[in-house]
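hiii so um. not sure if this is the right channel but i have a protein structure encoded as tokens and i wanna go backwards to a sequence. like what aa goes where. can anyone help
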């Protein structure tokens, strides 16, 4: 056992001796004042929460990849199931994760004690640096010894950088930190164009060239799949389809403000949260909004400031782009062709807005969900349409040239975006949505766009196939669930129904990978022609034909992902 390591069932790394490690209170000679001891005695008990999931996954991936990098020819399936303790040993895990070896500001330590130098080894899917006090070579040595370093999460840092940080808050197995400065810069780092970057929580990647943001997001998808199932790590992830506009793309912004004691109405900050805090940063302009939305942003701020004294609490404002007739005498937006519409904005959450995708129009309440990057929607919906058309042709065994896919089912259909965008290539389209308001919008949008072969059904997607009578061999299913993903019951029903093609669209890639792993574990997905062994044989087995990410939100960590699954017959 290395010197100074306490045997608690865990394998904790001992950082190299340094001024930082001594100031971190790691030695028995460290003295504290009585007030410091009193503050530390009141520190909160660290508990594992769902919010830790993203960071803990990133830490495990870092340790696994570090281990693999030290093993010639090792396969990802050979990597240890856990680092620092035996897999499944919850007591040893808790002993490690609840006893941080460093001070933190919110644990009662003085700020001077909390300043440390760290090395950034990886960046999480949320754009936050994963750092340790160990340099890369030292980290490899520790991992090979079965030791586990203490980790810091540091915003606005890049892989390979060395940074000065201030440890702020202890979490389960890691410590949140603020960035003080970067001492060794990555070659990828650029100057962010927004003056609020580094304080505002809205963007995480402005300090990286756009082409490098795209590669980062491709790797996010790749890592999420590998983490869900090491066998998925063999699947190729296509380059991320980029947004036509890296800035000036957002068609919706929601600034907010809080009313605080002893703050005069004229001094109330209106904007977005400060990183890592619940306080609002005053923001006068947001450069990722469209020109129209930026105009509306200024008007929304002014309107709120003019009546600020009337607010008893804080509020969230809405600025949303819409399309209106160029000539108000020409008719309503329903009647006017797309070419005769112009951009405008609304600040009223109860108003209706109109979005345009190619030659299609979509109307919905301003407070409702709709994709917020209109510039990429033609390519986004076009890719789904082209995938369905391609597989309809390739799977066709008949001579009528009509294609193998005759029916399209759009689960989680919302206001009808994908159902309407793809309807022309199917005999029948069925959209399912649990929201009555969304179903009403979808029906109106289908009528407005002349899509008379679509039936929208109000109901839970989890029970969708009770209402479907079409032959699964001639059916394609689009699923576009919320960020948390789908659920096992729906996925099992989907496989039992067995549509010929499935297109899974996700805004939450880890949840998507988890859902696909559920299908794999049920024997419903084959990798390299092999399926998971199990007692029950599924009614359908699929291969993953394509993984295509899309960047709907440049400058942020968000990435959308589309997976095409084709039934093996």
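sure thing!! here u go:
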């Amino acid at each position: 056992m290395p010197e100074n390591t306490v045997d608690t069932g865990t394998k904790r790394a001992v950082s190299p001796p340094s001024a930082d490690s001594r100031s971190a209170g790691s030695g028995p000679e460290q003295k504290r004042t009585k007030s410091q001891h009193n503050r530390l005695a009141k520190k909160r008990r660290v508990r594992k929460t769902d919010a830790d999931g993203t960071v803990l996954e990133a830490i495990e991936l870092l340790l696994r990849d570090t281990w693999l990098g030290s093993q010639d020819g090792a396969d990802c399936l050979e990597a240890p199931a856990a680092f620092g303790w035996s897999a499944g040993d919850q007591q040893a895990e808790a002993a490690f994760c609840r006893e941080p070896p460093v001070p933190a500001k919110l644990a009662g330590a003085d700020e001077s004690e909390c300043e440390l130098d760290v090395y950034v080894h990886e960046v999480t899917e949320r754009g936050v640096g994963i750092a340790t006090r160990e340099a890369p070579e030292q980290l490899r040595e520790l991992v090979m010894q079965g030791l586990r370093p203490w980790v810091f999460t540091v915003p606005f840092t890049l892989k390979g950088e060395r940074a000065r940080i201030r440890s702020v808050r202890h979490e389960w197995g890691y410590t949140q930190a603020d960035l003080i400065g970067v001492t060794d810069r990555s070659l990828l780092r650029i100057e962010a164009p927004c003056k609020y970057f580094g304080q505002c929580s809205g963007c995480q990647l402005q300090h990286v060239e756009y082409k490098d943001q795209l590669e980062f997001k491709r790797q996010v998808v790749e890592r999420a799949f590998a983490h869900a199932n090491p066998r998925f790590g063999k699947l190729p992830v296509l380059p991320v389809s980029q947004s036509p506009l890296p800035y000036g793309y957002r068609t919706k912004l929601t600034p907010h403000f809080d009313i605080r004691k002893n703050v005069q109405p004229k001094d109330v900050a209106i904007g977005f949260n400060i990183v890592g805090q619940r306080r609002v940063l005053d923001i006068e302009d947001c450069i990722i909004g469209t020109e129209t939305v930026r105009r509306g942003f200024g008007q929304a701020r002014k309107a709120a400031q003019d009546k600020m004294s009337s607010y008893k609490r804080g509020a969230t404002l809405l600025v949303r782009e819409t399309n209106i007739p160029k000539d108000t005498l020409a008719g309503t937006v329903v009647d006017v062709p797309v070419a005769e519409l112009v951009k405008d904005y609304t600040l009223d959450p109860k108003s209706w807005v109109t979005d345009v995708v190619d030659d299609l129009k979509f109307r919905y309440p301003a407070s409702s969900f709709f994709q917020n990057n209109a510039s990429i929607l033609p390519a986004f919906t076009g890719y789904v349409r082209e995938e369905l058309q391609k597989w309809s042709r390739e799977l066709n065994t008949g001579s009528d040239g009509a294609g193998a896919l005759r029916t399209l089912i759009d689960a989680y259909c919302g206001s009808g975006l994908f159902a309407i965008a793809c309807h022309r290539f199917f005999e029948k389209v069925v959209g399912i949505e649990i929201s009555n308001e969304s179903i009403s919008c979808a029906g109106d949008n289908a009528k407005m766009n002349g899509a008379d072969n679509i039936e929208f059904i109000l109901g839970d997607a989890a029970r969708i196939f009770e209402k479907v009578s079409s032959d699964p061999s001639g059916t394609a299913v689009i699923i576009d669930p919320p960020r948390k993903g789908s659920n096992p019951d729906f996925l099992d029903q989907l496989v039992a129904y067995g549509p010929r093609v499935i297109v899974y669209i996700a805004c939450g890639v880890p949840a998507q990978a988890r859902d696909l792993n559920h299908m794999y574990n049920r024997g419903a997905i084959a990798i390299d022609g092999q399926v998971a062994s199990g007692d029950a044989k599924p009614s359908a087995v699929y291969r993953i034909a394509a993984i295509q990410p899309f960047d709907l939100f440049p400058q942020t960590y968000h990435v959308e992902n589309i997976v095409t699954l084709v039934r093996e017959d």
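oh and Residues 1-10, 14-42 have pLDDT under 50 and may be disordered.
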